[in-house]
Structures are given as structure tokens and as C-alpha cells.
């Protein structure tokens, strides 16, 4: 049976980082470090430099994923890139990355599923590998989210940051149990207006989204475990979408995981939308926390509403 194995991970954060106080000062916001950190866990975020594109960040993350996998451009035959902040409607950000990496074969396209984008991209890539459309795929989440924020709306502009994360998936046969075990994708367009881009800027009914988040993530996680005949106790790492520390902690408690088994970056990255999970994966593999053989559970919710979960054995 063909499986999609995560052969490498990579992440990129723009150089410029702003603390909550620096952000409030820079944009003249009526907010405080105390409010932001208590309600969200966020302490700082990175911001793309002028002229630094989503594709630039994505390519940097992809290069690290390729290097970690010991792969070169000639091996990649698909690029699937999740973003809510593409550099243009077309060409897709994925094809721009293809060009930047010198990849001359295969296909590339973008996926739009807001903060759930990486889980969606992983699901699509895994299906395409299993059905023989490609033998390897770069799966990327990349966002220049600070470009679509309303800097007069303290309820949203303090929450997001920029960055990119990537994984290289490789087809592997045989009896091994490494790879993506399953992905579970959901959406419900009835709730489109509680988290949307309107007039080019992000609008969010935060409390409403919060309410949906806890219930929908819990159900996606249960679905993923049940589909694989696994129990909560089998999960070694939770790598959740990083929107709010309170949501992350609630999911960790639900799974009965000790805090040190939950990968948290929201304090330093804020919410990087589709980039948050692959950025967290990159960090946790780079520092040796997530190791070969570990069972990793990923989950996310975002505009759409879209939500989902994925289970992978590293
Ligand atoms: O990634 C996609 C998924 N997104 C999420 O999962 C986000 C889910 N939602 C959340 O994380 C939380 O709802 C927020 C962090 C967005 C907001 O936290 P909250 O505890 O739900 O606060 P709230 O929106 O209900 O606002 C409470 C108060 C309000 O004041 P009043 O009306 O009670 O006087 C807001 O005006 O906090 C005020 N407020 C702020 N005060 C200082 C809102 N933003 C700020 C701010 N600084 N930045």
C-alpha cells in the first residue's frame, strides 16, 4: 500500500518581530500587553518586510523541508500551497514557488481554506500520492496576513502574523506504518460571515468563532482517532492551529495530554493562518521533540467555516 511519508519539514519567519507593546505603539492601538496575552497567549508576531512576498516566504520554508529530506528540486513533482494571502489571483503562489525553486516538472496550485488550509492541502496531496498522480509533493502553508488587517480594529489586528511552513511528502510502499494515516476535512458555509475578508480586510466575530472552534475541533479529533482505531492515549504530540492559547489548552486537556506534549508557537508567532501548523511542525522537528515513529495529531479551524484534523506517524 502506498503511503505519504513526511520526509522533511521547514519553516520561515520574517526578520521583523513586534511585541504587543511595540504593535500598540506603532499603530496607535487602544490595547495592552495584558489584554492580548491573557485572552490569546500572544506576546509577539513577525511581519513581512516591504516587498517580501508570500511566495518568498513559502520558498524559504520549502528549501528547508527539501534540505531536511535530502531532496533536490528534480525530485518534486507537485506543489500544493495553502494561503489566504496569495501574491496575485494568478499566477498562483504555488507556481511562483515552483519558479523560485527551479522546479521544471510536475504541477502546482493554491488551496483556499483560510486557517484550515494546511490540513486541506495535506489531505489533497496525500490523496494524489496514494492514487499515483505524483510521487512527491511539497505541501506549504504561507501567509502575509498582516497585509489584510484593519489596523483600526483592535479586535483582529493584534491576533495575526506572517510566516510560512512546509513539508515534503514522499510516496513509500511496503508494510511500514509511517506517513499520513488519514485526513478529515469539513466546511459549513452557513457560518461564512463570522470570519471573512470584506473589502480586502479581515472581519471576525471572535466570540462566535471561539464557540464553534472548541466543539468542531473536538469532533474532528474524535473522528480522526476513531478512523484509525486509536485512542487518545496513543497520541504523542498535538500540533494544533495556533489561534488562541485557550483553545489550544482546551484541546490538550480533552486529549489528556501533558502540556509538554502540545506544540505551542502562538506566543511568538501569533496566528499565521495556514502557516501555523507547518511552522509548529518545523520547530518541533528541528529541536528534536517530534522524532521518527511519533504519532502526531493536527487540527485547525478557520474562515468558511472550514475545519479538520490529520493524523501522521513521523
Ligand atoms: O484562526 C481562525 C480561528 N480564529 C479563532 O479561533 C479566534 C477565536 N476567538 C478568539 O480567540 C477570541 O474570541 C478573541 C481573542 C478574538 C477575543 O477574545 P474574547 O475573550 O472573546 O473577547 P471579546 O471579543 O468578547 O471582547 C471582550 C472585550 C470587548 O470589550 P467590551 O465590549 O466587553 O467592553 C472588546 O471590545 O475586550 C475588548 N477588546 C479588546 N480590549 C483590549 C477586544 N479586542 C481588544 C484588544 N485590547 N485588542
TrEMBL record:
It catalyses: malonyl-[ACP] + acetyl-CoA + H(+) = 3-oxobutanoyl-[ACP] + CO2 + CoA. InterPro entries: ACP_syn_III_C (IPR013747), ACP_syn_III_N (IPR013751), FabH (IPR004655), Thiolase-like (IPR016039). It is found in: Cytoplasm. Residues 109-189 form the Beta-ketoacyl-[acyl-carrier-protein] synthase III N-terminal domain. Pathway: Lipid metabolism; fatty acid biosynthesis. Keywords: Acyltransferase, Cytoplasm, Fatty acid biosynthesis, Fatty acid metabolism, Lipid biosynthesis, Lipid metabolism, Multifunctional enzyme, Transferase. Residues 225-313 form the Beta-ketoacyl-[acyl-carrier-protein] synthase III C-terminal domain. Catalyzes the condensation reaction of fatty acid synthesis by the addition to an acyl acceptor of two carbons from malonyl-ACP. Catalyzes the first condensation reaction which initiates fatty acid synthesis and may therefore play a role in governing the total rate of fatty acid production. Possesses both acetoacetyl-ACP synthase and acetyl transacylase activities. Its substrate specificity determines the biosynthesis of branched-chain and/or straight-chain of fatty acids. This is Beta-ketoacyl-[acyl-carrier-protein] synthase III.
